[in-house]
């Protein structure tokens, strides 16, 4: 196995708790949330934001198209920070431990520009990368090969020397297809064990 020169983190559900379903469940109840998500393609709306469209404009577009749900749709923007409600502390500790040992750390994330600015202001730890590769800025999105290629080109790190953690299997598989080493994120403890196994962190620095 090749030596790893850099670690690449996804952000949503790896470093940042992103849970719109939970937010709406608390707000209107699970049944009403399921009905809302069935009637309105809110995930599709968010994907368009990740691809570079402005979330505020998208929310108004969808609210106009679904007037019966307009107030609930608008919450996707006004209450966004209640959906992205907290950092995942163990993951942040691992990011900082890697950087403290001189390991380059990058973000590769599907994220809208406006919402990432909101997240950065609320959670400054999300800015603690050597560089970030953001779908909305690059107009390329995981798992499309282009966004992985951009990171390879701009960092100058060979694919087999990149280690990538993401919560979505299809994003990990796309990275592995390019030769990256991948870890499906299911929690900080599993990631910590893998980083120790790869000799990127000693056990005492990987406690989460």
Automatic annotation (TrEMBL):
Q: What InterPro entries does the entry give?
A: HAD-like_sf, HAD-SF_hydro_IA, HAD_sf, PGP-like_dom2
The name of this protein is HAD family phosphatase
Organism of origin is Psychromarinibacter sediminicola
């Amino acid at each position: 196995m090749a030596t790893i020169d850099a670690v690449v983190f996804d952000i949503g559900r790896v470093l940042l708790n992103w849970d719109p379903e939970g937010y709406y469940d608390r707000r209107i109840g699970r049944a009403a949330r399921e009905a809302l998500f069935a009637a309105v393609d809110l995930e599709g709306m968010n994907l368009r934001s990740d691809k570079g469209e402005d979330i505020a404009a998208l929310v108004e577009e969808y609210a106009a198209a679904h007037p019966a749900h307009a107030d609930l749709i608008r919450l996707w923007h006004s209450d966004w920070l209640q959906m992205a409600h907290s950092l995942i502390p163990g993951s942040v500790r691992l990011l900082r431990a890697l950087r403290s040992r001189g390991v380059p750390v990058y973000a590769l994330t599907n994220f809208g520009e406006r919402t990432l600015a909101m997240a950065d202001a609320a959670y400054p730890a999300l800015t603690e990368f050597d560089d970030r590769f953001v779908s909305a800025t690059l107009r390329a999105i995981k798992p499309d090969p282009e966004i992985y290629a951009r990171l390879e080109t701009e960092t100058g790190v060979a694919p087999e020397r990149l280690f990538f953690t993401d919560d979505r299997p299809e994003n990990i598989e796309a990275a592995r297809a390019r030769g990256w080493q991948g870890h499906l994120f299911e929690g900080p403890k599993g990631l910590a064990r893998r980083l120790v196994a790869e000799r990127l962190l000693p056990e005492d620095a990987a406690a989460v």
